[in-house]
Amino acid sequence: MKRVALFGGAFDPPHLGHVLAAVWARSISGVDAVWVLPVAEHPYGKPVAPFAQRMHLCELAFVDLPFVSVRTDECDNPGGRTITLLEQLQATHPDTRFALVGGTDTERDLPNWYRGPDLLAAVDIIAIPRRGYDDIHPGALPAISSSLVREALRSGASIDGLLPARVAEAISQMQWYT
Length: 178
Description:
By secondary structure, the protein is an alpha/beta fold.
């Protein structure tokens, strides 16, 4: 049976923390693939950049990771509920065991999600430690967030060490997030 890690998010924009999380998920869990799934709309109604822009930036961010596929499955997930997406994927990929990638804070909150108990019963969880939540974990990923990146871009601050080079270049060329 194939094992796939589902890594969803706004990716607005995708940053080095996202790339490191995909590598962590593959390395630690031994999944065969990581599917990056930009949301069509933010689950809490927050404004996000257009889907096509975020999709393009994700493709650039993960291009050097052959085990990662950037996918549009969230566009066919009315309501954006994780459990409904999972059920759709299970129906179309019956030979695949899915896992969810998220921070340890997300893992703690999953029981509170829409149909959280069903979700927890249906998938494995790949919990990624990160600074700001798991400071004592020696492998905690850096405290990089998309909101931090957007603020740096808006204010003209340095984004060195925050974005994959191709993503930074595309944002600069297109003058996104300014």
